[in-house]
Amino acid sequence: MMVKTLLAFPLAALLLSAFPYGVQGAESVAVAGARPARPPSPAQLAARERMRDCAATARGQQLAGDPRKAFMKTCLAKR
In terms of Cα–Cα distance, which of 42, 38, 39, 61 is closest to 50? Predict the structure, then answer.
């Protein structure tokens, strides 16, 4: 009984003291490796707008499946 008590307290103290550091360490590693967000380039903004316009047109024509895929391909290539 005495041996179990002697082993239980240091083990519990070790687990409780290491837990906050383990969580904090994992967050600091994730944050340290993260890159700051860059605003989209003008080309990316134009591509998004083209995609949005073509998708709206396809939706208006109620295209689905292969016809939609073909329409989107030609629509995006035109601009």
Answer: 42
